[in-house]
Every structure is written in C-alpha cells, then in structure tokens.
Amino acid sequence: MPVDPRVHRHPPSSYHSFRNGSHSRTMTTSPSSRKKGRRLRRRSIVLIAMGVIVAVIATVVTVIVVNLPDDLEIGRLSQKSNLYATTSDGSSHLLASFYDQNRVEVAFDAISPFVKDAATSGEDPGFYEHGGVDIWGTVTGIVATVFTGTTRGGSSITQQYVKNVLVQKCEALTGETERADCYNTATEASPDRKLKEMSLAIGLEKKYSKDEILRQYLNITGFGGSVYGIEAAASYYFNTSAANVTLPQAASLIAIVNNPVKFQLDKPDSPTNGAANGYADNKVRRDYILDAMLEHGKISQADHDAAIDTPIEPTITEPSTGCQTAGGSAYFCDLVVHTLRTDPAFGKDAETRLANFRLGGYQVHTTLDLDLQDAAEVTMKENVPDTFPGWDLGGVITSVQVGTGRVLDMTQNKDYSQDPDVQATGANYSGINYNTDLDQGGSNGFQTGSTYKVFTLAEWLNAGHSLADSVSSRPRSNWGTFEDSCNGPQNYGTAFNPKNDSSSEDGSYSSALQSTIQSINTGFIGMAKELDLCAIRKTAEAFGVHRADGNALEQGAASVLGTNEIAPLTMAAAYAGIANNGVTCTPIVIDKIIGPDGAEIPAPASNCTQSVSTDVAAAMSYAMQRVLTSGTAAASYRATTPRVPMIGKTGTTDDNKDTWMSGASTKVATVVGVVNVSGDGKDQRMTYFDSGQAATARHRMWPDVMSVANKKYGGDSFAVPPRSMTR
C-alpha cells in the first residue's frame, strides 16, 4: 500500500513526548520558532555554499598565481640627500637636506620591537607563518573588488610592500604624464592587479627573509604627506627615532599606515582627528592595534592598559629642506645643488641627473670652510645693509683655495629664498646668487672695473715687455688705431676718452708697474695700444675668465678697464691662478659624495691648466704685492692680520657704482664687492652706510676674511720673477 506522503513515519522534531508517572503529555513549538529554525538552516546552507565557492576561488587563484611571473626588481627608495660642511675639528655640519620624499632608510635593529610587533599584529598577524599571501583575506578582497570596484583589504605585509615598490618605481620617473600613468596601473582596482601582486609577493618571500621584508616594508611605507618610512615618521610626529619610540607612539605610527589621510597627526585643527578630541580617529585605530598586540602575546596586559590610557601628544618636527635652511651659507648651497643637477659626475645626461636628485639618498660633503664662511657672513652683516633707499644694493664675498679650486666661502647681503611670494614682499630676499654665473642660478654678472687690468698686465709680460717699460699715458680723446688680430684694426675716433681717478695720474708716461700700483687707466690703455686686443682677451680666458651671461668676452679697448660683466667667483678663481704660479683651477664645491649604497661616487673634479708661464705669474705677483703695500689696496693690507705675502687689485666702475677688492695669498683668494644690481645705483663715494663710506666697505670686509684665512692656512712667499721682467 503506498505511503501517504502527508503521513510522517517518525514524529516530527517539533514534537516531544514524555511520561510522568501514569500520565503523559505532548508539547509542540510555536510557529515563530519553526520559522527561525528554517532561517538558521538556510543561513547555514548559504554559508557552506559560500565557503565552497571561496575555496574553489582560492584554489583557482592559487593556480593562477603560481603560474604568473614572480620576479620583482626592487629599486632604490627615494630618500633625503644631505649637504655637509666640515668644521675646524673635522666633524660634519649639516647645511641642508633635500627630498621629494622625507625618508631615512634604517637597519632592522634600528627599529623598535614595538613598531615591528604593532605592524604585524595590526596589519598581518600571520606574517611569520604564511608564504607571502594571506589567501583567504586576499580572495575576500578580490571578491569585494569585483563587486564594488574599489580595492579592499586583505593584503599581507608582503603584498603591501610589493604595491609600495611598484608605486616607488613610478615616483622615480621624471615625466609627469609617464609617472601618472604608471601610478594608475600600480594602484588600479582590478583582480588582475591583485593577482600579480600576490604572485610577486610569493616570489619575494623566496628571496628574502621575513625580517628583511618587514624592514623594507617599514622603510618604504607612507606615513602621510611627504613622510615616508618609520625613521622619518618617528622624527616628524614625535621628535624621536624609530629605535626609541614608546609603545603607544609605535601603535599610533602604524595606525597612520592604514589610512594616512585619516590618521595622520599633523592636523591639530581637524574636527575628527585633532588636538581637541585627542586625535580620536588615530586613537581608535591605535587602540585596535594595541588590542591585537595583546591578543597575539606581544605585550602584557599591564603594558596594554598603560598604553591605552596614554594620550596622543604629537611633537611635530618639521625636517629641514632646501637651501633656505642653510642660513648665510644658502647661496653656496644653491651652487652645490646646481652642480649636482648639471655636472656629468652626477649622471650622464640631464634626465639621469634629475632622476638621481629626486631619488636622493646622497651624503654630499662640500668644500665650504665654516671658519671663513662665518667671517664672511659676519662682516657682510656689519658693513653692507640688506637694502638701501633708492639703490638695488648688492654685497658679495667669495673665496677659493689656491691650487685646488675649492670654494671656501660664499655669501651676499640678502636672505635666500626661492619663493616668488616672499621675494615680492621683501627687497631683502633674493633667489639670485650674485657670486655665480647665470646658468648656475646667478646673475648676468657685474663690471669688474680695474680688477680686470691684471689680464692686460699678463699679456704685456707675455709679449716680452718688462714691468719697468713705460708707455704714453697722457689722457686724450684720440688714441688712434688698436691692433685686433681677431676682428681687424680698431679705431674709435674721438669718442673714446678714458679718464683717470685723479689728476696726479695724468702724466705723459707711466711704467707698467706704476700703472698697476696706482691703477692708472690711461697707462693700461697705453699698454693695450702696444698689444693685440684679441690676445688680451685670450689671456683673460686662459685664466678661466668668461662673461656670466654666457656670451663671449668683449675685447674692445674699453674692456681693458673692466667693462665685461663677470661673476665674482670667476674672478676669485682667476686670482687664485695668479697666486698659484699661473696655474688656474676651475672652482669646485664638492669634496666627496657618498651614494645611497654607502659607496663613494667620484665628485666633480677641478680642471687645472697653465694660464701663463711661472715667470709671468711671478712678475704679475711682484707688481700686485705692491698694490697692497703701497698702492690702491693699502687700506686692506693695513687692516689684515696676521699678514702673509699677498697680492691684490682694486676696481671701481664708472661713477663709482661698483667697488671691488680682489686678492690672494699663496693659499686663499678672496673677492669682495659692493655693487649695483639694477637701476641707476648710487655714487659710493657720496653714500654712507652705518659702518662708514660705501666705497670703503670693501676694505673693511676683505681684511676680515683674509685675516681668518691667513691665520688658518698661512701663506708662502711668491716666486721671484726674472730680472728681465722687472727692469
């Protein structure tokens, strides 16, 4: 007989029978309980089904990942580059730091265990057990990504590190568009990217130990804004090091990693994560991490409770960045930066140099002598004001070591800034380095006045003349025709009528020695009249002299008196060449570069060439010593102590708009100038600063610098010239 399907063969589970003595009673559940039971059964079935689906997906994902490329090339991390000067005791003094990303890479043992445990507990508790991928968390993330279009969590620390590496490769690119495209590819919300990330993470764990991966992760990850890596984060947020952070500080820092914009601690006015509410957002995440550290046995209950009770109190410490932090040495710093960006020693082409500079990690030890630099800064402040009514006033000092080309000091009478807004609001600010060429961040140069006459003196001696030889030096308006082997004979008619500084210099004949000692204009024009204007220009070029604007040196008769606009640093190197027996060395600003890997990189080298013969250089020095002892530079000589043998030459441009004092010992050459940067300027002999007459400021500053140089470096006697050159 067929069984009626409506008849239960066994009592339904909703029934329960029991006996109590001779009585029996049957009880039934309510309809609501039956519905609840059915829901629980359906939910269990769904969960089991989802588990099976996830397991299948996980298996498929694993197969796919295993067959993807797993070789990740890890490049350099972007780090700070530091510029140093050497103190008198040999220690290094930080001038400035530069970075696109504020990062200092540190070793594993330089990171507090609190930081490591906070990272693993909060971000990846199974870090030391899995093979690079938290497969269940990642698959969940992939599923969420597919359905939401937004990348979700689930990534292991190794996977996060892989993503950061790919992003850093993008940051190293120099082109904005190229960099943006690369970044979008590295961070796109797609299962494909996630799978590749997993494969690379697995491959990474085959190459590196867990500790090394954790170290690299903590060094690469972002902590908000331009702060990258745990060392920079500890310094920036808490004014400490990665090795010395406390437990609550470590948890707060690792909290930032989860969402830097939401959890960073440098926005005290934030309504959701600011000082008023105790940085509430960060605290929630911090306390979650502390709970996880307790759960995984990384900290004790007592330490956990004490950390939970600790308020979040950041000590924001802005890192120094850019040359403005170098104070009075900022303009020297600016020249170092230009050198790094342009010199082939720092990269074979402009693109490579820019990439190197952006990646950073270099320790650059400069040539700056802090003793001379301090003297230059002090005397500049004392003698030349930042600004002056009706005058775009400039003051410059720079020194070069004789025989090496090493720039020892460089300063000017302005506060350094590359901020256009700051410059617009204060005439005491300038981003232009008055000491250097235009293509080195400098100006178009300045007329050098009579300091340029020494190159005519050099050619006079080159041509076989003696210092005792005289020329017609009578002032006149028609000097006749000058020889110019480059451009042909030059005749200026009656338009060329150079004057002397005083009537006592208007004799009919002057010797080369007398013209040099007294800086007689017409005496040097008379010498040039017997020479080749082109040869004079070439002799100047032999000393490395060139126009600051990059154009060719002018070589007309007037140029003999110093009408070419030349950078002070160029003239300092030339005078160092005279003092170095005629061997001129190009200026250099870097002694040593240590690369990111700790290896030394060859620094830009000075190129030394024989500008004139040693005999000619000796005769030039013979005359230029007398400029100091009994000529126009006597005021500088008298104020210098200790005195060593020194050479020098003064210079004054038309209407006394620019005044110069240039000179050297056998160890150090220094150029000092008070100049008109633009506009009409002032007659310096009619203008007074608080320190005295503007025209004599050079004779107050040059001795201050050279006194320090002489005391520190000393000075030898100059070579004696052949008698034929002095008689």
Automatic annotation (TrEMBL):
Pfam families hit by this protein: Transgly, Transpeptidase
InterPro entries given in the database record: Beta-lactam/transpept-like, Glyco_trans_51, Glycosyltr_51/Transpeptidase, Lysozyme-like_dom_sf, PBP_transglycosylase, PCN-bd_Tpept
Keywords annotated in UniProt: Carboxypeptidase, Glycosyltransferase, Hydrolase, Membrane, Multifunctional enzyme, Protease, Transferase, Transmembrane, Transmembrane helix
Entry-linked Gene3D superfamilies: Biosynthetic peptidoglycan transglycosylase-like, DD-peptidase/beta-lactamase superfamily
Membrane-spanning segments: 44-68
Keyword Iron-sulfur: no
Region described as Disordered: spans on this chain: 1-38, 490-510
Catalytic reactions of this protein: [GlcNAc-(1->4)-Mur2Ac(oyl-L-Ala-gamma-D-Glu-L-Lys-D-Ala-D-Ala)](n)-di-trans,octa-cis-undecaprenyl diphosphate + beta-D-GlcNAc-(1->4)-Mur2Ac(oyl-L-Ala-gamma-D-Glu-L-Lys-D-Ala-D-Ala)-di-trans,octa-cis-undecaprenyl diphosphate = [GlcNAc-(1->4)-Mur2Ac(oyl-L-Ala-gamma-D-Glu-L-Lys-D-Ala-D-Ala)](n+1)-di-trans,octa-cis-undecaprenyl diphosphate + di-trans,octa-cis-undecaprenyl diphosphate + H(+); Preferential cleavage: (Ac)2-L-Lys-D-Ala-|-D-Ala. Also transpeptidation of peptidyl-alanyl moieties that are N-acyl substituents of D-alanine
Start and end residues of each Penicillin-binding protein transpeptidase domain: 397-676
Record's protein name: Penicillin-binding protein
Source organism: Cryobacterium algoricola
